[in-house]
Design a protein that fits this description.
The protein is α+β, with helices and mostly antiparallel strands. It folds into 3 domains: about 230 residues, BirA Bifunctional Protein, domain 2, CATH 3.30.930; about 130 residues, Alpha-Beta Complex (YbaK protein); about 100 residues, Rossmann fold, CATH 3.40.50. The chain is built from 16 helices and 31 strands. Strands 3, 7, 8, 9, 10, 11, 12, 21 and 24 form a 9-stranded mixed sheet that branches. A 5-stranded mixed sheet has the order 16-14-15-17-20. It is globular. The relative contact order is 0.13.
């Protein structure tokens, strides 16, 4: 392909709206252009990379025996009503009324659609097991689309669904998909970490995320220094903490005028935040519940919802808090509180803590659980923090950011029961089908790779994902001999099955070299002064290392050798 015959609109400067490296480089290299917030057009280079990822995903899915389908993006809203997920998606769900008055959703995911298909087409154990997958757009009305294609309103996913007769079959399919994901991310050149994860809006019992460690990632993962524990922070549990003091001192109240936040109380009383107790009042159905965590910890609401057995939990409003505590916001405490009290494990072992006094401008010091207030139940309710102990070996946990590129779930019968997807077993008994769900963010793979594979000059593509494997760079296209030689090299490489881009633009060498670095093609063949003087071309590897000079007639063989192709 000639540069002049395709569309590669490179930019010298970073776009003002781009915050992270992958977003900047995908725009500057001419891969994508923004149409509206959260929606991007893919230009020729971006489309080629996208298709490379799709091909790898499809090859590995087919290798597992999964069968490809293509499901509608439009979904009747009543399917989401059947599964009970309309409220779960909330305002992220994009929906509208068609001309016939029927409510339609743009698919945020396809569990309901695939289950609807299977319940109408599969009725016997003889038709199982089967795994179906698709590569399809998903739509979510993100409140704040950001980071380019990492968080957008429209995104491309591979989602697969396994259907099984028993747990043993589900275990096998789950392992098969887990292994396939490892192969996919290995082939894409990603440095990834599989972590135990919460099942979130998908539901089910077991799940793993595949995370690419990156400071721009919006997920947090906890990893043990011993290496045996990697988990999404939402699912992570710390090793139990123990009391550091023995003697209980006399509880007393202190005046704390206009001191309401943890930082303010800590500074005013000269007490570490870890000695403070936060009393948070949650509304759970029609009940108010007090949730206690240490001042230096945060409530993990995903874990709290599971403890309470409720999906829709939220903090009580100010009026309810004032009514139940008798104090303004910022002074709630567990002493004398006449509602159910649940505490994080770290609170249950505190000695001589500081709490709100349920009285304006007042706190209590030397408060001790059990002696001064009751706890109805103790659970792990908080997010882990850097330095917590690993629950498996006790070694220190490290917290880091990561980009989620894949997620596998054991759904069990969550959808098959509510959507009535059943089969007749070998005894003639009707049973719900067991399901697994397996998703990959195709666009995210591209952005995650760029975040981890770039330098100050641009993208560094691995050969398997690069839009082209070789860039042929004649520095003086006005010299017919130089341009003809470059064209011959291009044609020979293309004939050998090596995807090659010929930069035939009449531009200064500096412009060409900068664009070459920016778009990141792995191998560069430069026809410059050395070619004109000695008939040799320069072969450069984008990832670094010494350039080498090769006679023109041997360059194709050299490139094929480097790409491990047969000569």
């Amino acid at each position: 392909m000639k540069w002049s015959q395709t569309l590669i609109p490179t930019l010298k400067e970073d776009p003002s709206e781009a915050e992270i490296t992958s977003h900047k480089l995908m725009i500057r290299s001419g891969m994508i252009r923004k149409l509206l917030s959260g929606a991007y057009s893919y230009l020729p280079l971006g489309t080629r990379v996208l298709n490379k990822v799709i091909s790898i995903v499809r090859e590995e899915m087919d290798r597992t025996g999964a069968v490809e389908v293509y499901l509608p993006a439009l979904q009747p809203l009543e399917l989401l009503e059947e599964s009970g997920r309309i409220d779960v998606f909330g305002e992220d769900l994009i929906h509208f009324k068609d001309r016939h008055g029927r409510m339609i959703a743009l698919g945020p995911t396809h569990e309901e659609v695939i289950t609807h298909l299977v319940r109408n087409e599969i009725s016997s154990y003889r038709q199982l097991p089967i795994t179906l997958y698709q590569i399809q757009l998903k739509f979510r009305d993100e409140v704040r689309p950001r980071f380019g294609v990492l968080r957008s309103k429209e995104f491309l996913m591979k989602d697969a669904y396994s259907f099984e007769v028993d747990e043993e079959g589900l275990d096998k399919s789950y392992k098969k998909m887990y292994d396939a994901y490892c192969r996919i991310f290995d082939r894409c050149g990603l440095d990834y970490v599989p972590v135990e994860a919460d099942t979130g809006v998908m539901g089910g019992d077991v799940s793993h995320e595949f995370m690419v460690p990156s400071e721009v990632g919006e997920d947090l993962l906890a990893r043990c220094k011993g290496g045996d524990y990697s988990v999404n922070r939402e699912r992570a549990e710390p090793a139990p903490l123990h009391a550091t003091e023995k003697a209980q001192q006399v509880m007393r109240s202190v005046s704390t005028p206009k001191v309401t936040t943890i930082d303010q109380v800590s500074e005013f009383l000269q007490v570490e935040p870890g000695k403070l107790v936060k009393t948070l009042i949650y509304k759970v159905g029609g009940e108010l519940v007090a949730v206690l965590v240490r001042g230096d910890h945060e409530v993990n609401e995903t874990r709290l919802a599971k403890v309470l057995g409720q999906d829709g939990i939220g903090l009580a409003d100010e009026e309810a808090i004032v009514n139940i505590t008798g104090a303004p916001m910022g002074f709630a405490g567990p002493v004398g509180l006449d509602i159910r009290v649940i505490a994080d494990q770290a609170v249950s072992v505190l000695k001589n803590a500081v709490t709100g006094a349920n009285k304006a401008d007042t706190h209590l010091v030397n408060v001790n659980p059990g002696r001064d207030f009751k706890i109805d139940s103790v659970h792990n309710l908080r997010y882990v923090v850097e330095g917590d102990g690993c629950p498996r070996c006790g070694k220190e946990l490290i917290i880091s950011h990561g980009i989620e590129v894949g997620h596998v779930f054991k759904l069990g019968t969550k959808y098959s029961k509510v959507l009535d997807a059943r089969f007749l077993d070998s005894s003639g008994v009707q049973r719900p089908i067991l399901m697994g769900c397996y998703g990959i963010g195709v666009n995210r793979i591209i952005a995650a790779l760029i975040e981890c594979s770039h330098d100050e000059n641009g993208i560094i593509w691995p050969p398997e994902l690069a839009p082209y494997k070789v860039l042929v760079l004649p520095l003086n296209v006005k010299d017919d001999g130089c341009l003809d030689a470059a064209q011959r090299v291009h044609d020979e490489l293309e004939g050998a099955g090596v995807e090659t881009l010929l930069d035939d633009r009449d531009q200064r060498p500096g412009v060409k070299f900068k664009d070459a670095d920016l778009i990141g093609i792995p191998y560069r063949i430069v026809l410059g002064k050395r070619y004109q003087e000695a008939g040799e071309v320069e072969v450069q590897f984008r990832k670094g290392g010494e350039a080498s000079f090769v006679p023109l007639e041997g360059v194709v063989t050299e490139i094929k050798r480097r790409l491990s192709l047969s000569v």
